[in-house]
Design goal:
There is one protein chain. This protein has 119 residues and is of the alpha+beta class. The protein has 3 helices and 5 strands. It starts with a strand and ends with a strand. 26% of the residues are buried. The model has no long low-confidence stretch (mean pLDDT 91). Bound molecules: FE2/S2 (inorganic) cluster. The site of FE2/S2 (inorganic) cluster (FES) has 13 residues, from loops.
């Protein structure tokens, strides 16, 4: 169970509740269900259109939520992450950057904030 707050300078913040056990739902799917207008195109981790920033409600805490392989490739292509950050992620299993792809990141049992559009 998690509260996911979608935040954008263009829209009012909206907090939605992600149901327990739905650990297959991506941020993009949750956004669509709740009429949150996050841009997307491929929906498959290839184009980078759904780029968002994700952080825990307590921003000082690090999230244990590594990037998917597709996210690593796209975020590197976009210049949002370095190889050193990827190497560190493999060592400590922590999320190395706030940049994520909404169509790839699955919501877990953690209260988070999703900032969009973020570029
Ligand atoms: S919609 Fe293309 S990477 Fe997410």
């Amino acid at each position: 169970m998690a509260n996911v707050t979608f935040s954008s300078p263009l829209h009012k913040d909206k907090t939605v509740y992600a149901v327990a056990g739905s650990h297959k739902k991506t941020i993009l799917e949750l956004a669509k269900e709740n009429h949150i207008p996050i841009d997307f195109s491929c929906g498959d981790g290839e184009c980078g259109t759904c780029l968002v920033k994700v952080f825990p409600v307590d921003r000082k805490r690090k999230m244990a939520h590594p990037l998917t392989e597709r996210e690593v490739k796209v975020l590197k292509d976009l210049g949002k992450i370095t190889q050193a950050q990827v190497d560190q992620m493999i060592v400590d299993d922590l999320m190395p950057t706030e940049w994520r792809l909404a169509c790839q990141m699955v919501v877990r049992d953690e209260d988070i904030v999703v900032e969009y559009p973020s570029r």
